[in-house]
Design goal:
It contains two helices and four strands, in the order αββββα. By secondary structure, the protein is an alpha+beta fold. The chain is elongated, with a radius of gyration of 17 Å.
């Protein structure tokens, strides 16, 4: 993400920061939610067999959402989902469904 230094009131600073938030990873995007703009990143972890040729239980996907906190310059709300299990092709639909559920939940986040 970009760094924005300003003496503007905090709500204005948050708006400026949100405008300049840039995804930095290959699977990072800027998303719009009810809480405002945020950076959404998906990290799919490699699926490698253990030393005996078996697939091990591990985190197979992590999804992060990061929002600048209104009224708190330099503060961010970060929410994460990690799906873990045996990294096999048959579980891919479940990983996708859990990711979609998490996305819907994050799109409904609002500031109180």
């Amino acid at each position: 993400m970009s760094e924005v230094r300003t003496d503007a009131p905090s709500d204005t600073a948050v708006a400026l920061l949100a405008e300049r938030m840039q995804p930095s990873g290959p699977n990072a995007t800027v998303a719009r939610t009810r809480a405002g703009r945020c950076v959404r990143e998906i990290v799919d972890l490699p699926r490698a067999p253990d030393g005996n040729g078996r697939l091990t239980v591990a985190a197979v996907r992590t999804v992060h959402y990061s929002w600048p906190v209104p009224g708190a310059p330099g503060s961010f709300l970060v929410s994460a989902l990690t799906v873990s299990g045996a990294p096999i092709a048959e579980f891919e639909p479940i990983v996708e469904a859990l990711t979609e559920l998490f996305d819907v939940m994050m799109e409904s986040v609002v500031w109180a």
